[in-house]
Design goal:
Layout (H helix, E strand, L loop, with lengths): L1 H14 L22 H10 L6 H21 L2 H46 L4 H10 L5 H13 L4 H12 L2 H16 L4 H24 L1 H24 L1 H9 L3 H25 L6
Helix pairs in contact: 2-3, 2-4, 3-4, 4-5, 4-9, 5-6, 6-7, 7-8, 8-9, 10-11, 10-12, 11-12
Length: about 280
């Protein structure tokens, strides 16, 4: 607790007297982040582009859980469980898709930003000054990302630590490479321009290879989507036309209930396996 308080006070001294002035991307450790699931949900929202404080995330998570419990109390158990699972899956899918789209756009814009950064470095500026100067002319969403990095650096945070934190949050290896290069440059000196030029070439070659891979696996990814949605849609259709079907199975103890539980577990496991197989072609860490 003492170490956490020391880190919190150090971050607050760099960010100013008001906690709200701190960029959400580098929010220091707070009591809300120790609540199970709040840190994970906060990072997911930040990756999706929603600048939300952990305190608000904790309140929203509590409200969502209370709503789901209310649905369980007022509805049929099987239907309520299915509604809760579907709602949670939809929220998760929407946030992950938005975060993936935002991350892909950052990766697409990163070579142009690094090229501008190299030009500013060639003019004799330091890395700390160049990051903020290059971010001013960058488009969204890479602009607020590096504006936050530049602001933290100006307030006293080491540039390599800030870049590493951004790379960890957005799951970008390229930012971690920049952080490593900045760390080596800060300790031992040397030129960053050669490393950054090599990084530009590597990013563009990897993007080209990733586009080719997505084109080759388009049919497989669509098949995985169909296999995931068909059982869920079929279940909803049966519930709409014959609600007593699953109710009779649920009251048929223990055979019917066991079949429902096993079927639900197999469906969730199958969707998870398909999701992992599809995500294995991505570049995330």
């Amino acid at each position: 607790m003492a170490r956490g308080k020391e880190r919190y006070e150090g971050a607050m001294s760099r960010m100013g007297t008001r906690e709200e002035a701190a960029p959400v991307l580098f929010t220091p450790d707070s009591p809300e982040l120790r609540i199970p699931g709040v840190k994970w949900a906060s990072q997911l929202l930040w990756r999706a582009g929603y600048e939300t404080q952990p305190r608000r995330v904790a309140v929203l998570s509590g409200g969502l859980l209370l709503t789901l419990l209310f649905i369980l109390l007022v509805a049929n158990l099987v239907a309520a469980l299915m509604i809760d699972i579907i709602v949670l899956l939809l929220v998760y899918v929407v946030l992950t898709r938005r975060a993936a789209a935002r991350r892909s756009l950052i990766v697409e814009q990163l070579p142009g930003y690094v090229e501008n950064l190299v030009r500013i470095l060639s003019a004799g500026n330091s890395l700390e000054e160049s990051i903020g100067s290059a971010a001013v002319e960058a488009p969204d969403p890479i602009r607020p990302l590096f504006l936050s990095v530049g602001r933290q650096v100006r307030l006293g945070a080491p540039v390599d630590q800030v870049l590493a934190a951004a790379g960890e949050l957005y799951r970008l290896r390229d930012l971690k490479v920049m952080a490593l290069a900045a760390n080596v440059n800060r300790r031992y000196g040397g030129s960053l321009r050669g490393v950054l030029r090599s990084l530009i070439v590597a990013i563009r070659q990897r993007a080209m290879a990733q586009r080719e891979l997505r084109a080759l696996t388009a049919e497989t990814r669509f098949s995985a989507l169909v296999l995931s949605l068909v059982p869920i849609l079929l279940t909803l259709w049966i519930l709409y036309n014959n609600r007593e079907y699953y109710s009779a199975m649920y009251h048929d103890r223990p055979t019917g209930l066991a079949m429902l539980l096993v079927a639900g577990g197999l469906q969730v496991a199958g969707v998870f396996m398909l999701w992992r197989m599809v995500n294995s072609i991505r570049e995330d860490d």
